[in-house]
Amino acid sequence: MTAEYFNRHGSLGNSTTFPLTVSMSLKDAFRPPRETERQRTLDGPIPPGTIRSAPHSTAGSHYQSTCGLVSMTFFNISALREAIDPPGLVFGTDVLRNVENLRVPVCSKSYIRGEVLENEFDPTTVEWQNGATFPGAVGRPFDCTVHSIEEISAEPEVRKPKFEIQLAFDANESATKNFEAGDSFYVICPNAEMDVEFLLARLNLTSKANLQYKFTVHEDSGKTVPSYIPTICSIRHILTYCLDIRRVPGRPVIRALAEYCSDPKERRRLLELCSVDGVREFQQHVQSASISVIDLLIHFESCSPPIERLVEILPRLLPRAYTVASWDLYAKNRFRFVVSLMKTTAKDGVVYTRFGLCSGYLRSLMNGDQVQLIVKEPSKFRFPLAVKRDISLDAAPIVMIAPGTGIAPFLAFLERFRELDSLVGITSRPRRYLFYGSSNFEKEFIFRTEIEKLKADGILTDLILCESKPTDQETPSRYVYDGLADQPKEFFDFLFSTPQPFIYACGDVKQMSRQLWETLSDLFVKHCGLTKLESIAHLTEWRKNEYFIEDVWS
Q1: pTM beyond cutoff 0.90
Q2: Chain segment 439-451, per-residue pLDDT in tens
Q3: Is 79 domain-assigned?
Q4: Is 51 inside a domain boundary?
Q5: Which of 311, 356, 362, 460 is at a distance of 20 to 30 A from 153, taking alpha carbons?
């Protein structure tokens, strides 16, 4: 995980360019760049008071340096800005600005102190995040090597491009010995180099960024330095590996930042955003807009918190979990993951377009690069433990429900079934359903060849495709729960048969869990003669006994 990983990001396809288009009216000319209405497609924060003009830059170049960029200084005419800017992150509504006694949370007290030492910091002298563990982690980080990265869907056809990454691990690595289909691993990812460089420059920390820095606490505080912060490290190390500088700041963070604004108007606005009175504006202009601390520091130029305060108020930079999308590759000492490349667009207070922290990091890697993983504590969402049900694994009937990248664990499940089928020489397979959803299968059908082969070979007995945005406008939208609703009565008889099928649902769709629950309970009433209460009781019992298992996120 070197600082150069984003330097090589010049390629979401190796030819993609990220133009900066600046279209300014007379009104815009008097705004600082933070408030101008313009298209920005950048991969790094804009230095306060400047705009970038790099019409043919690649993504990677934005992470290398701020040098060579044409800058233009804006007049800071606050009164004019307030007159022409609509309510947003920087300027609130008249109603909120007229509240005299804002109800703000109590500001937490500072308790950490720092000391610059003479020598440069050697990052090899400390463990990742000081060796501190976190909930869900099993054991220490272990090294993997990037074996391959392959695009499996791309813009502009899809909203969230997806890619496959295979990581090779040492055959003797003990952390991989208990792997089972459906398991996940945490990927350790650093903050983007450009974000870190901006913070160092913005807070006047560049000159001492690489020196040893000692963190202690005030003796009367009764507190300790966070366990994930090495006692002696460097400011650059802290910002790169320990603090989450991308997460949307909560109201307590904004409350603390307000204390470091020398401009009374900026302080007032931050107090508005963290106040009870301004909760709606906080939700609209901070939470929903996906604002980061960097965005705030660009917009609120007089805010200059010390590094010690950032250590206190910013959350820990935690690894991101990904589910392994293959079983067969495990025998070759490789894990495969499918990743959606997340992107936050520059608008509504977000100063620069950026990719998801971990997905962008993984996409920037090249074959041979090193990545660290941590085993994620096994959940209930693993290959069916049918041995506990007095039947063999190969005989376990199963219903798999997966929109989008939720297909990942089921590819591992089905490959595992194929292995078991070949071992026992099975001739009669149980029913194995896959309800698979995509917005448009013509534009995105990830792992199509593999899925169709599993179906052709009989490993997967039933494949139900559900398309929410079909090309043919006369074709109705169909989500995975609609696919369930379209099944005949025989399917629901199957759900109540012996041996009882396992139902697994996995996906990154908001509200999917609730919709599945409602759909199944309604269908039980329709097809099985149950009352609504009886339907809910059955689903509750299935969930309790691990026959209905979900892994849903948003």
Answers
A1: no
A2: 999 899 999 999 9
A3: no
A4: no
A5: 460
